Amino acid sequence: MAETISGYAISWQRPAIIAGLFEERFARGSFDKYLAQNPDVAALWSHDESRPLGRVSNGTLSLRSDNIGLYYSLKPNPDAPLGQEALATVGNGTVNEVSVSFTPVVEEWDDSGDMPKRLITEAKLYEISLVLWGAYGKDTSAQISRAMSNNAAALQRIREKQRARGILK
Fold first, then answer.
1. What number of other Cβ atoms are within 10 A of residue 14's Cβ?
2. Which residue stretches of the chain have pLDDT < 50?
3. pLDDT at 48
4. The pLDDT value given to residue 159
5. What is d(CA 14, CA 120) in angstroms, rounded to the nearest whole number?
6. HSE-up of residue 133 (Cα within 13 Å, Cβ side)
């Protein structure tokens, strides 16, 4: 079975307090324009460029914008020590948050309250990282899913049907 780490790198409109200085949120689809033009985003371990886990260009990372946020699916190499570490620590729940490296292109500021608020409506996305603690906390996620190949899944369905009919025990 292939193991995949997936979840949300960003949830739209969910606030984060950045360095105690301002509140930040992302508007729905804020990465869409950049991803359409520059889709080769990387997945890293804790923003460390020397510890890559995957990237869009080699098919080990996929990203999609939906109603909730920016969803990712990462297939780290299970034969590499870093891939094993990522799968193990996400699998046991030690690491379960995500952070992003980005540059805002279009942003709106609201200084009317006690704390300034920034809404990012367009941004460049460079990488997502599996992290212990991210700025957006539990509004991001990292979890393991174990996908079976089509053949294995079909064989499992056949065996379940045979058990139901009493052919297999």
1. 17
2. 148-150
3. 95
4. 64
5. 11
6. 2
